[in-house]
Design a protein that fits this description.
Helix content is 57%, strand content 9%. The protein is α/β, with parallel strands linked by helices and 445 residues long. The chain has an eight-stranded mixed sheet, sandwiched between helices. Bound molecules: guanosine-5'-diphosphate. It is found in: Cytoplasm; Endoplasmic reticulum.
Length: 445
């Protein structure tokens, strides 16, 4: 991803500052030159880059800096804060509430990733326990109906559309009414994107908005469009009240900077970024963690949210076992299964502090996913007795061979699994038990 390169360059400039023998105005200027040229090459709007440069210089008072004990930290903090300022309009995105029958309308140009993002958002809130429905109010593009219907059925999200109706406003009204009657928490309306900024597109958007009165309007923007982002965002902002933004295709060759500049054009916050074609490829966006991750400093809040979404506490058997300092093969299987359900591994890895973009280069997500899948085949070939054990019984070679035959997985890979299980088990033993940290986390144990 090209944004990784931006992160690496800014990071490089900050590190060069750490190594500089004298920290004076010249060193600060050199740092800013490098940071700004990296931002410009990533398509960030030139006015914004200029403003950012001025703001950093304002923040770093050279006279005070001369007497400061930690000059590097002062400068690095100033750059960090200003980078955050670039992507943060200072407004919180609107949040749907359970039991409130919220309506979200999606707008954006055709091909921006609107329909895909509708399903991703539905899956995101479904994971949070909401009852979500999708409405296809795009009668312009042939195939929009089938695409959203297919996505919705794959994601097990109820769908409303009408092949024979040609008026998108009518479809939106009926779809929203039907889902409201069935007490849905969140109703997502996908609208037409047409192919360019046509007057009819904006008129249609306004009519749908007037008819369904959405609580929030999300503007979907393609992250690869570069400098054109600014004028596109302004045109949409003039027609509808954009509440938040989703920037898509940030996984591919998106320089991302153009779309990031859209924040300034609309004054609306980026709420999510699309990082792939899969329904789980939607990352929550907030300025500080994003910049922190960009610079290889990790994204703790994203990691915490991901772990919370796993609802590990619902697996009572495992929590009880862990608190006692016991870790069975079944516990390991359940944990790995939950991780696999969370989507691509590289995303979770990327949230770990210390995982710089450079380090991620060596991580082969496909290979790790393949290994996890083969582990699942191994677990499927085990008996209940074996799964509930600590794995020691696999010292019997005949048992090991039986599982290898049943799962089609090589013996060495099964041994690697058992070894990893043993390692985890030792950690759990240390943390669990009556005095351990884990038993305090779970009062039911
Ligand atoms: P719409 O016309 O705005 O509804 O766009 P679609 O949802 O049909 O998406 C257009 C294309 O972009 C499809 O091929 C999607 O699979 C792809 N797409 C959407 N979001 C992403 C993303 O975040 N990353 C990548 N790589 N592709 C995406």
């Amino acid at each position: 991803m090209v944004l990784n390169e931006l992160g690496a360059r800014i990071n490089g400039a900050l590190q060069a500052l750490s190594k500089a023998s004298v920290i004076d105005e010249k060193a600060v200027d050199a740092l800013l030159r490098e940071v700004c040229s990296a931002l410009l090459e990533s398509d960030v709007n030139v006015m914004l880059v200029q403003k950012m440069r001025q703001n950093v210089k304002k923040r770093v008072n050279m006279d005070e800096l001369a007497s400061s004990a930690n000059k590097r930290k002062v400068i690095q903090n100033a750059v960090f804060e200003e980078l955050c300022g670039l992507v943060d309009p200072g407004v919180q995105p609107w949040k749907p509430q359970k039991g409130k029958q919220n309506v979200i309308m999606f707008v954006g140009l055709q091909g921006s990733g609107k329909t895909t993002s509708c399903t991703k958002l539905a899956v995101y809130y479904k994971r949070k326990g909401m009852k979500v429905g999708l409405v296809c109010a795009d009668t312009f593009r042939a195939g929009a109906f089938d695409q959203l219907k297919q996505n919705a059925s794959r994601a097990h999200v109820p769908f409303y559309g009408d092949y024979s109706e040609t008026d998108p406003v009518q479809i939106a009204i009926e779809g929203v009414a039907q889902f409201k009657k069935s007490k849905f928490d969140l109703i997502i309306v996908d609208t037409s994107g047409r192919h360019k900024q046509e007057a009819e597109l904006f008129a249609e958007m306004e009519q749908i908005a007037a008819a369904v009165k959405p609580n929030n309007t999300i503007f979907v923007m393609d992250g690869t469009i570069g400098q054109a982002a600014d004028s596109q965002a302004r045109a949409f902002k003039e027609s509808v009240d954009i509440g938040s933004i989703i920037i898509t295709k940030m996984d591919g060759h998106a320089k991302g900077g153009g779309a990031i500049s859209a924040v300034a054009a609309t004054g609306s916050p980026i709420e999510f970024i699309g990082t792939g074609e899969h329904m789980h490829d939607l990352d929550k966006f907030s300025a500080r963690p994003f910049i922190s991750k960009l610079l290889g400093m990790g994204d703790i809040s994203g990691l915490v949210e991901t772990v919370q979404d796993m609802h590990m506490e619902k697996n009572e058997d495992m929590m009880k076992n862990l608190a006692k300092g016991v870790f069975t093969l079944k516990d390991m299987r359940d944990q790995l299964q939950t991780i696999m359900n969370m989507g691509p591994l590289n995303k979770i890895m990327g949230m770990m502090p210390g995982m710089s973009p450079d380090m991620m280069k060596g991580f082969d997500a496909d290979e790790s996913t393949r290994r996890l899948r083969s582990y699942m085949c191994v677990f499927d070939s085990m008996t209940e007795l074996e799964l509930n054990s600590d794995g020691k019984m696999f010292e019997e070679e005949s048992r090991l061979r039986r599982v290898a035959r049943g799962s089609g997985v090589r013996l060495v890979e099964i041994q690697a699994l058992l070894y990893q299980h043993k390692q985890f088990g030792q950690i759990v033993k240390k943390m669990g038990g009556p005095k351990g940290m884990l038993s305090k986390m779970n009062p039911n144990a």
